[in-house]
């Protein structure tokens, strides 16, 4: 029975190798963050904007919108694998396309079907949500396909941080509230800056493959250790400096100050980047796993602080 991405494909009574290949194509572990993050942020927006009484089916709306954001991520994963066959054959031969379980053109077709479904579903939530989902689609498609921003140094970091950090957070908040108010805008900005550095973790195992296929990253241009030092300020500045600044300038409430503690796990991500030890079950290094978990908990803590703060259950720090 194939349980993880790196396990061999074999026949079973439950799922065929092709079905398991489709599952691997969308990379389920990476869908955990958009589902959980969006659900918590949507609930925080619901409470913050006082919409719970006028939205009796709020939990259905949250489920539908979070699934939509997860599926756009799934489409991006499938499209990326269809475009990265040469590189994956070198660094990730266990993926379904290099293994011959799923064809590259088949994966691209699956991605486009998912994108179409996601867009049609998103515009039924509301106009803001549909707009942000469309922008996420534009960035993720152009990241993998021509002009293929993935291959350009520095631009690739920004290109992946904007949809995952900035637009993703604003899309989730827009389900029940105005995404252009200070609270969602600030947390979206902090998340985007964090991802600009933290996303370097995903390129460590692809160092040689990216070099051979013409993709320039922080890792294969400056080396793993130098890339870690370049990424570090982006991972700590949002929580250690920008958040306190926004609090003291009264752009966001003081009950969000505990988010500054996420400076600590950012240093652990940096430390694990220096070690660059690959996970035996997941398809990347431990730093990449911790990075995803850190962002997940940033969103959860932000949402809980917002909910309890809005309800007056957290006293103001000043």
- Give the beta-strand count: 0
> How would a crystallographer describe the biggest sheet?
none
Can you tell me the overall shape? Answer: globular
Low-confidence parts lasting 5 or more residues at pLDDT below 50? none
List SSEs in N-to-C order.
Answer: HHHHHHHHHHHHH
Cα-atom radius of gyration: 20 Å
How many H/I helical runs?
Answer: 13
Counting structural domains, the number is: 1
Query: What level of helicity do the residues show?
Result: 55-70%
Structural class: mainly alpha
Strand content: under 5%
Please report the distance between the alpha carbons of the first and last residues: 56 Å
Averaging pLDDT over every residue, what do you get?
93
Account of the 3D structure:
There is one protein chain. By secondary structure, the protein is mainly alpha-helical. It has one domain (17-310). It is 66% helix and 0% strand. Helix 3 packs parallel to helix 6, helix 5 (104-122) runs antiparallel to helix 6 and helix 8 runs antiparallel to helix 11 (224-248). It starts with 16 loop residues before the first helix and ends in an 8-residue tail after the last helix.
Structural key phrases:
318 residues; mainly alpha; 0% strand
How is the secondary structure organized here?
Elements: H1 17-25, H2 28-48, H3 58-83, H4 85-91, H5 104-122, H6 127-144, H7 155-174, H8 182-198, H9 207-212, H10 218-222, H11 224-248, H12 263-275, H13 286-310
Helix pairs in contact: 2-3, 2-7, 2-13, 3-5, 3-6, 5-6, 6-7, 7-8, 8-11, 11-12, 12-13
Brief sketch in words of this structure:
By secondary structure, the chain is mostly helical. 66% of the residues lie in helices and 0% in strands. Helix 3 (58-83) packs antiparallel against helix 5 and helix 6 (127-144) runs antiparallel to helix 7 (155-174).
């Amino acid at each position: 029975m194939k349980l993880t991405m790196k396990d061999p494909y074999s026949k079973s009574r439950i799922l065929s190798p092709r079905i398991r290949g489709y599952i691997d194509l969308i990379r389920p572990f990476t869908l955990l963050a958009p589902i959980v993050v969006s659900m918590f942020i949507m609930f925080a927006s619901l409470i913050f904007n006082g919409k719970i009484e006028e939205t009796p089916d709020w939990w259905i709306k949250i489920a539908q919108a979070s699934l939509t954001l997860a599926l756009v991520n799934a489409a991006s994963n499938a499209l990326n694998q269809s475009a990265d066959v040469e590189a994956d054959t070198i660094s990730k031969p266990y993926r379904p396309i290099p293994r011959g379980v799923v064809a590259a053109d088949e994966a691209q077709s699956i991605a486009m079907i998912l994108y179409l479904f996601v867009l049609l579903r998103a515009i039924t939530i509301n106009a803001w949500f549909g707009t942000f989902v469309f922008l996420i689609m534009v960035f993720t498609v152009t990241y993998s396909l021509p002009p293929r921003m993935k291959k350009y140094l520095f631009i690739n970091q920004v290109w992946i941080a904007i949809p995952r950090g900035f637009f993703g957070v604003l899309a989730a908040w827009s389900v029940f509230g105005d995404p252009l108010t200070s609270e969602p805008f600030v947390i979206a900005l902090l998340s985007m800056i964090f991802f600009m550095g933290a996303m370097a973790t995903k390129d460590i195992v692809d160092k040689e493959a990216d070099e051979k296929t013409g993709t320039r990253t922080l890792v294969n241009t400056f080396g793993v250790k130098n890339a870690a030092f370049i990424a570090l300020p982006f991972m700590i500045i949002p929580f250690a400096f920008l958040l306190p600044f926004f609090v003291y300038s009264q752009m966001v409430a003081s009950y969000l100050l505990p988010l500054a503690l996420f400076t600590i796990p950012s240093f652990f991500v940096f430390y694990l980047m220096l070690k660059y030890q690959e996970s035996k079950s997941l398809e990347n290094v431990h730093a990449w796993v911790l990075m995803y978990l850190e962002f997940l908990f940033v969103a959860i803590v932000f949402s809980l602080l917002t909910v309890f703060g809005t309800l007056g259950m957290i006293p103001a720090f000043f």
